[in-house]
């Protein structure tokens, strides 16, 4: 049955000679995997560009509940990015976020509130000028609220890590920075140095791991840390 929905691309894998399998977080049906035939052929005319990390799509899909791989009838960009694919920091953040959300958003679990939040946050990132290097920290902390386990503030965040027995380096004035990241809007100039940013990212991933009962091994994290420290 044909259904319309918006989607956020969470990654793709090559499949056979000319096809790909794409994981997409959809507004109406949660995270779904789609097979896209012929998208890597010489006749595809750039269709693979639709499925780049974090691409925001308008979709018409063939949907059947419980089916493993779905198919797409129509796909077009809901918003054409101006910077994310070309800006080195934004592109690297995008790659990290697609891997992170691909591992944390459960298959077929619908969360329209979270979808709406991430969709508009990514739209903002594309033209964000100040505080880009902290975007992923804020997005993960704020997204946790929509997943049902967001920290109430800095003390709650740190206390949950301690109670779970997580080992981490507690930084000077860390509570102040966590509070800002949670409560300040995107684009605020939160003055974090590279060391703080790396440590806080590790802590946020541990925080998610507590609630999702998963180790969350993110391969792209080292590249992200390197780029943000450049």
Structure description:
This protein folds into 2 domains: about 1-80, Nucleic acid-binding proteins (OB fold (Dihydrolipoamide Acetyltransferase, E2P), Beta Barrel); about 130-230, no CATH class. The chain has 7 helices and 5 strands. It has helices at about 90-105, 110-125, 135-145, 155-165, 175-185, 195-210, 220-230; strands spanning about 1-15, 20-25, 30-35, 55-60, 70-80. A 5-stranded mixed beta barrel has the order 1-2-3-5-4. β2 (about 20-25) and β3 (about 30-35) form a beta hairpin. The model has no long low-confidence stretch (mean pLDDT about 90).
The helix fraction, in percent, is: 40-55%
Strand count, sense and closure of the main sheet? 5 strands, mixed, barrel
Oligomeric state of the chains present here: single chain
What is Rg? Answer: 18 Å
Q: What is the tally of helical segments? A: 7
End-to-end distance, in Å? 49 Å
Give the strand tally. 5
Structural class: alpha+beta
**Spatial order of the strands in the main sheet?**
1-2-3-5-4
The secondary-structure element order is: EEEEEHHHHHHH
What does the secondary structure layout of this molecule look like, with pairings?
Elements: E1 2-15, E2 19-26, E3 30-36, E4 56-62, E5 69-79, H1 88-104, H2 112-127, H3 135-146, H4 154-163, H5 174-183, H6 194-212, H7 221-228
Parallel strand pairs: 3-5
Antiparallel strand pairs: 1-2, 1-4, 2-3, 4-5
Helix pairs in contact: 1-7, 2-3, 3-6, 4-5
Q: Which structural traits does this protein have?
A:
230 residues, alpha+beta, OB fold (Dihydrolipoamide Acetyltransferase, E2P), 5-stranded mixed β-barrel, globular
